[in-house]
Amino acid sequence: MLHTLERGLHVLEAVAAADGTATAKMLSRQLGLKPGTCYHLLRTLLAGGYVVRLPGGRYDVGHRAASLNRHLQRRSGPPPELAVILARLHNKINEASFVSGWHHGTLTLQHYISGHDTPGVGDLDVGYTGHMHARASCKSVLAFLPEDQVAAMFEGVELAAVTPHTIVDHDALIFELAQVRRQGYAVDREEFTGGVCCLSAPFFDATGSPVGSFTVSVPTARFQERQVALTMAVREAASVATALLRAGHLTLVPAERGASRT
To answer: Where is the HTH iclR-type domain (predicted)?
Structure first.
């Protein structure tokens, strides 16, 4: 690996996460970098337009980094019809709402709308593909794939304990997916982010293959009282998307449908 490049990317990520409050001193301490190395990396990113320097020695994301994000959203984002369904779901339940789908053979977070009173969900952002075993949005889709395909996807893969509640045993995961398949939706109770529960329902194309999911996330404190309403809302959103796909009113290109996922 090119460690200088790796360190530079870590600096860029830390600047983005700080929302305009990052300073060289803070970044140096946070990332364990020597002050001189940190300043050199920041100057390089600044010269390339990946960060900008604000008054008071603070740094924020620059136009080049923002451009990369726009390219990602344009290429991996959902069709307008799914974005409309997502907006309707969010307006109905007033909680953080997400839509995921296949992109380059991987189940990918395509778009989300933040909740008004919901904490952030881990490192989730558009384009996120990790920790499928811990996320309701992924388990709802995995449950309806052929079992041999799921086995191949997780063969030799360690199920990392993202939180103390994460499923880390392969047999337990298969059992969980069977339950999801029976009930038609998936739940993660603080498996991906502490203090947050998520509920997700899959949608299907005309062949019956799962091609994505709608998900909502809420603080654990109010999940129990809202679970029934949330379940109805995400299943309705998924049902609408499925109906559009089966009627031919919505088409997903092969890359979005996971044509290369096997």
So the answer is: 2-63
